[in-house]
Every structure is written in C-alpha cells, then in structure tokens.
Design goal:
Layout (H helix, E strand, L loop, with lengths): L4 E10 L6 H10 L12 E12 L2 E12 L6 H8 L4 E7 L3 H19 L4 E6 L11 H9 L4 E4 L8 H15 L15 H6 L4 H17 L2 H15 L8 H16 L4 H19 L2
Parallel strand pairs: 1-3, 1-4, 4-5, 5-6
Antiparallel strand pairs: 2-3
Helix pairs in contact: 7-8, 7-9, 7-10, 8-9, 9-10
Amino acid sequence: MSNMNEIQKKIILLGDGAVGKTSLIRRFVLDMYDDKYVITIGTKVTGKAIQVTVEKEAIFLMLQIWDILGQKGYTKLHHSTFRGTDGVMMVADITRKNTLFSLATYWIPKVQNMVGNVPLIILANKFDLMEDAEFDETHLEKFASKYNASFYFTSAKNGENVNQAFYALGERMIEFNGGKPIRPAKHRIIHPRLLFEGEKSEITQLIDKIIDDFCKHHGNLEEAMPLVRKQFEIAGLDLNAPSRIALRRAVHRLARIEGSYKKSEIAEANLVRRLNWIKETENQ
C-alpha cells in the first residue's frame, strides 16, 4: 500500500428526507442496516478508505462522506457544507417519484450553483421495495443522461449495488482531476466505526432524539420539520453551538404547538418526557 497514490476526496449525499442517505452510508461503511429513521440536524461526516484502479493504477482513496440534512431551505447550512465537494450522490426513493423530481428542481441546481460541475451519481434507493416503485430503469436512465451521470438502483437494506455506487463515484472523482495525488496525514486515516459512532456531540444526539419524537407524534415529516425549525429559531437554539437552556425553551415551544392540535394531556406528557431527556444528560 505504501507504493500507491493516496488521495482524499469529499463526497456529499443529497436528497429529500427519508430517502435513505444515512442508511446507505451505514451499509457502505459498517456493512449494516438500521431502519430506525433519525432526523439529522446539521451534518454528519463519516470516513472510509478504499482502493480503486484507474488506468491500471492502484489508488488508495480516503473518502470523507458528508450526510447533509435532507430538508429544503437550510441555505446557510448548505453553503457551508457544500464547500470543497469533489463528488455528489443524489439519492431518490424509488417508491416516491416526487423525490426524483426534487433532485431536478432543487438539489442538483443547488449543488451545481455552489460547487460547479463535479461528478454525480444518481441512486434510486429502496430497490427492495420494487413492487411499490413509481419509476423504472428507462425513466431513471433518461433522467441521469441529462446530467452526464451514472445511475444505480440500490438497497441500503440488503446492500444491493451500494458498494458499486461508492466505488464508481471514487473512480469518477479520480478521473475528473486527472488523478493528481494528495498524500493525507496518517492521523486522518481513522477507523470508520469510531468516526461514525463518535461524530455527534451528546447534545446534538439529544436534539436529534427530540426532533425525531416530535415528528413521529406529528405524523407528517414534511409538515413537522418547518415547525421544528421555526420554534428552534424563536427559542434562540444555535445548532452550531447548542445550549440546554435554549433547547428547553424550544421544547416548551414545541409543546405549545402540539397543544394546539392534540389533547392537552398528550402534549403535557410529551413535554415532560423531553425535558426528562435533557435532565438525564445533565446528570451523566
């Protein structure tokens, strides 16, 4: 391996919420599947080293894989996290044609406007649910050709085509810049499991847990996330430097929102449970 070129590349996964971006990363990096949906608030960064061959040359490629918040409108967040991107995976849910439409109308124009022309891979995820598919290979091939992009039908659940897609993007990124080697510092080669498990602070995990709880009780993700975002802003919860005081204010505001459409005892029980979560982390 010491005779190989070593290159570090940043890739981002983009697409609407619940298309399976986090599960795809988990499948690729850890070879496991977790069907528990976690609303990502911000960004998580995962690392994995792979070996690819381009023009008969073996290259040791360190991937920085950025899982970006899958909600539209987070312009400030997207501007900061898109910077320095070398390649993009655009992910749609095969059972929801509107998620493919979102790639064309929102995600692809947005990333191209911010980082220019970089290699793209289009993924139609949840291929294990093919019987519920709302678009097929002909449709996807026509879509991908508009962007000179490769495409794959993937399943984070059973792993189908997941590795192939990541390796294909790795090769395209090498070819895109002529394969110029950049030797990363050794300390950046981090065991992927440690990086994946240690990527979030305790309070960020807590915020994710509260958002997930609110969205599940609301019942509609697309409606719930704008409500969460608004109440967080009013409460002064800075997601880049969150505090438990601001989080408590946000939790109380979410309870008032729930009280407007749920029975008061349910809204109160949700409030108490979430406040107890905050208190538990303070005592640890």
